[in-house]
Design a protein that fits this description.
The chain has 288 residues and is of the alpha+beta class. 31% of the residues lie in helices and 28% in strands. The strands form four sheets. It has a six-stranded antiparallel sheet, covered by helices on one side.
C-alpha cells in the first residue's frame, strides 16, 4: 500500500492552529463516536491508531486527518477500499464543515464543535456510549478509549493502568431484595467509584455488576491506591435500596500496561485475573 506523500505545510513551518472541529461518526461500527480534532489523527483498524475502527473493510492504517490552515485535510494512507469524501474517492483533500467522510463502512461528519448540528449529533453519540442505569460509559466507549490511550502511552512512554471492580455477592441483593434494589445498589456503587477517580480517568460499566476504570498516567502503585479508595468508599456506608440499608462491598483487580502487551485487551485481562484472585482471597480487597 502507498503512503500519501502530500505535504500540508512547507518543511519547517510551524503547525497552523486548527479551528475547533471534530468528527462525529454516523454509520458503521463506530456510529456514535465523537473525535475532537486537536492535532493530527490516524484512523484505521490497527489498535495503535488514534482512532481505531473495528471494521473488516477498514485498512489497518486507512487515513489521517491533519491540520490545514484554519481547518483540516484528509489524506488516504494507501487503503484497500479508499477514502471517500462526499461520495468521491480522494487521496488528499481539504475538509469543509458538513463534509461526509467514509472509510469502508464507517461514515463520519466533519463539523465545527459547538454548532447546532454538532451538538445534536454529539448528544446522540453520548447516548450511544452511555450506560442508562449508572450514567457511566459503556463497554463500547471503554474499548474505544482503551485503544486511544494505549496508542498514546506507546508514543509518549507514559504509564497506563486499569482497574476492574465487581460487586461482592450481588446475586444476594437481587434475590433477597428484588431487582429494583439491585439497580439502586449499582447506581450508588457507580457514583461512589466515580467520585474517587481523577480528572481524565474513565469509568465504564462493562457487565451486570462489573465496572472498569481506565487510568491514564497511573502506574501499578497509583492504580492500587485509587482502587483502595474506591473499595473504601463503597464499603464505608450502607446503601439505601428502597426501605433497606444494605452493606455492600466490592473486589477490585489492577494492572499496568507492559511493553509486551499486544493491545489493551491484554491489560484488561490481567486486571480481570487480579480481580478473581481478590475474590478468591476473601473479597472486599484489591488484587494487583
Amino acid at each position: 500500500m502507498r503512503e500519501d506523500p502530500t505535504r500540508v505545510r512547507p518543511p519547517g513551518a510551524p503547525a497552523p492552529a486548527p479551528g475547533p472541529f471534530c468528527l462525529v461518526f454516523v454509520a458503521g461500527e463506530a456510529a456514535g463516536l465523537r473525535v475532537a480534532l486537536e492535532g493530527e489523527v490516524v484512523l484505521g483498524r490497527d489498535a495503535a491508531c488514534e482512532v481505531a475502527l473495528e471494521a473488516d473493510d477498514v485498512s489497518r492504517r486507512h487515513a489521517r486527518v491533519v491540520p490545514d490552515g484554519a481547518g483540516h485535510r484528509v489524506v488516504d494512507l494507501g487503503s484497500t477500499n479508499g477514502t471517500w469524501l462526499n461520495g468521491r474517492e480522494v487521496e488528499s483533500a481539504p475538509l469543509a464543515p458538513g463534509d461526509r467522510l467514509r472509510l469502508g463502512s464507517c461514515v463520519a461528519r466533519y463539523l465545527r464543535a459547538g454548532d447546532d448540528e454538532e451538538r445534536e449529533l454529539a448528544s446522540l453519540a453520548a447516548v450511544a456510549r452511555r450506560d442508562a442505569l449508572t450514567g457511566l460509559a459503556n463497554r463500547r466507549a471503554l474499548e474505544e478509549a482503551l485503544g486511544r490511550e494505549v496508542a498514546r502511552a506507546r508514543r509518549s512512554g507514559a504509564p497506563l493502568a486499569a482497574a476492574i471492580l465487581d460487586v461482592d455477592h450481588f446475586k444476594r441483593v437481587n434475590d433477597g431484595h428484588g431487582h429494583a434494589a439491585g439497580d439502586a445498589v449499582l447506581a450508588a456503587v457507580a457514583a461512589r467509584a466515580r467520585a474517587m477517580l481523577r480528572a481524565g480517568d474513565l469509568l465504564a460499566r462493562i457487565g451486570g455488576e462489573e465496572l472498569a476504570a481506565l487510568l491514564p498516567g497511573a502506574d501499578l502503585a497509583r492504580a492500587v491506591e485509587i482502587a483502595e479508595r474506591i473499595r473504601g468508599a463503597i464499603a464505608g456506608a450502607p446503601i439505601a435500596a428502597g426501605a433497606a440499608a444494605l452493606e455492600v462491598t466490592a473486589s477490585l483487580g489492577c494492572a499496568a500496561l507492559e511493553a509486551a502487551d499486544p493491545d489493551g485487551a491484554a491489560l484488561l485481562a490481567r486486571a480481570d485475573a487480579r480481580l478473581y484472585e481478590a475474590k478468591a482471597a476473601g473479597r472486599n480487597r484489591v488484587g494487583a
